[in-house]
């Protein structure tokens, strides 16, 4: 029998379409910082975008319906003292977002239910532990309040955001800059791509490298590595001849890739966005004006090219909506938020279907917003897959509970054996007196910092207004 030349796939005809101009978010000064993160994070309520900011780092958080021109004086999240490099929405609370910055800190923010009315300078918690800038933040997929950060100090820290503590510090596994970090489906492993050209699979709780591949891609430009739902690892990188490549690996045997494809000779880093429900990977090159998509299957050649969405303008960054934020009535299977120099443009991917009925083959049950584990359970060694929800009647966002941070008093806790730092024991009485004085001093410093931050925000708004006046006079 002859082999069918055209492979059967329900995703062969997926097509992308940019929304009309009035449904874009306009007049946004997208950050110009040189860093290869996506600069944009989206969930069913908000779109967050890292922007240019004088005197520190800031990002915008806009309710999804707030399209059109965004006023220069629109409030921002502006607590960092250096540029923001990465942002990530919490998968279990649509009002909580984490940010990593050049100021070496990670901050976690609670956004009011209807969006910002005033600029936000006070995070719920500041996580300090990195000695260099923090370029990567990634929430655990299934455990509540567990956040990973990676910095240019080549360290990965995993935090319990509920207590503000760094519980795992992987500071001796990478000898060079970490390009990206990805959790696997149940959050028991992470994989990383690094400047030393290695892809590593790490068990963070055992603090050991489970698998690694040297020179996953031979070229010197940045790589990316992400976990797929079946446990394989997908990478993008460059060949020695500077051609862009994509590859598929089995962590149980990293000698040879399952598949390796060469694409083109553009020099932008390929950011992969993965949908575990449909096994589609979308590749967005920084500086490209296209999104290519591939279907991953278990039959050769394993990575099947589907199509390319092309446009005129290059992308500076890209946000990717979780499945529960899509319109199932329109057979929408992905929605991207493409950053231009001065605007954010949603791009909608759909599978054309004649019927108006719910297409259950396109929408298997997907990860919902409930956490499967508490932070403590995960740190103790438990694993759990994401809790799934049906999208049959569409997703209705529920009430989110506020993020509460209960700081533990370090002086009360006994030094534990597995912590790397030894706590200095202080005689109790002097400790109490000293801590009283220290708290008063701390309060004083915090008040001063807050007033300076408020001043900066006000000055920013004043500068914007003056710029507008200048523009009017010049026009």
Automatic annotation (TrEMBL):
Keywords for the protein's UniProt record, in alphabetical order: Coiled coil, Repeat, WD repeat
WD repeats by residue range: 77-119, 127-169, 171-212
Native source organism of the sequence: Bos indicus x Bos taurus (Hybrid cattle)
DUF1899 domain mapped to chain residues: 4-68
Protein name: Coronin
Alphabetical GO biological process terms: actin filament organization; neural crest cell migration
Gene that encodes it: CORO1C
Family, similarity comment: Belongs to the WD repeat coronin family.
Keyword Repeat part of the UniProt annotation: yes
PROSITE patterns: WD_REPEATS_1, WD_REPEATS_2, WD_REPEATS_REGION
GO MF entries: actin filament binding
């Amino acid at each position: 029998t002859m082999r069918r030349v055209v492979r059967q796939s329900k995703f062969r005809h997926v097509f992308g379409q940019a929304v009309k101009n009035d449904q874009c978010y306009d007049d946004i000064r997208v950050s110009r910082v040189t860093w290869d993160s996506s600069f944009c994070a989206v969930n069913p309520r908000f779109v967050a975008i890292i922007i240019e900011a004088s005197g520190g780092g800031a990002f915008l958080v806009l309710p999804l319906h707030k399209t059109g021109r965004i006023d220069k004086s629109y409030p921002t999240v502006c607590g960092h003292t250096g540029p923001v490099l990465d942002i990530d929405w919490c998968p279990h609370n649509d009002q909580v977002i984490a940010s990593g910055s050049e100021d070496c800190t990670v901050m976690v923010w609670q956004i009011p239910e209807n969006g910002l009315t005033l600029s936000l300078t006070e995070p719920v918690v500041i996580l300090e532990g990195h000695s260099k800038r923090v370029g990567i933040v990634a929430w655990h997929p299934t455990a509540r309040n567990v956040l990973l950060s990676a910095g240019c100090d080549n360290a990965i820290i995993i935090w319990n955001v509920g207590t503000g503590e760094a519980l795992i510090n992987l500071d001796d596994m990478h000898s060079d800059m970490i390009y990206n970090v990805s959790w696997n489906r149940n959050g028991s492993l992470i994989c990383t791509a690094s400047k030393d050209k290695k892809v590593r699979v790490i068990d963070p709780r055992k603090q050991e490298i489970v698998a690694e591949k040297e020179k996953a891609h031979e070229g010197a430009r940045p790589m990316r590595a992400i976990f797929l739902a079946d446990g394989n690892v997908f990478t993008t990188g460059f060949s020695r001849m500077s051609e862009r490549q994509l590859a598929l690996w089995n962590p149980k045997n990293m000698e040879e890739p399952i598949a390796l494809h060469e694409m083109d000779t553009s020099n932008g880093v390929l950011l992969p966005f993965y949908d575990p429900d449909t096994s589609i990977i979308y590749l967005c090159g920084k500086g490209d004006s296209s999104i290519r998509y591939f279907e991953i299957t278990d039959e050769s050649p394993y990575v099947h090219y589907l199509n390319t969405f092309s446009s005129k303008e290059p992308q500076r960054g890209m946000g990717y909506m979780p499945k529960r934020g899509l319109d199932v009535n329109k057979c929408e299977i992905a929605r991207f938020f493409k950053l231009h120099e001065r605007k954010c443009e949603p791009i909608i991917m759909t599978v054309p279907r004649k019927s108006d009925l719910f297409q259950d083959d396109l929408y298997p049950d997907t990860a919902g917003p409930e956490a499967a584990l508490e932070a403590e359970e995960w740190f103790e060694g438990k694993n759990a897959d994401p809790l799934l929800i049906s999208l049959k009647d569409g997703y209705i966002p529920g009430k989110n509970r506020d993020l509460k941070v209960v700081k533990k008093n370090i002086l009360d806790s006994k030094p534990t054996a597995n912590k790397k730092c030894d706590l200095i024991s202080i005689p109790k009485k002097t400790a109490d007196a000293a801590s009283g004085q220290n708290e008063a001093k701390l309060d004083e410093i915090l008040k001063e910092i807050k007033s300076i931050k408020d001043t900066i925000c006000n000055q920013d708004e004043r500068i914007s207004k003056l710029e507008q006046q200048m523009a009017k006079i010049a026009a």
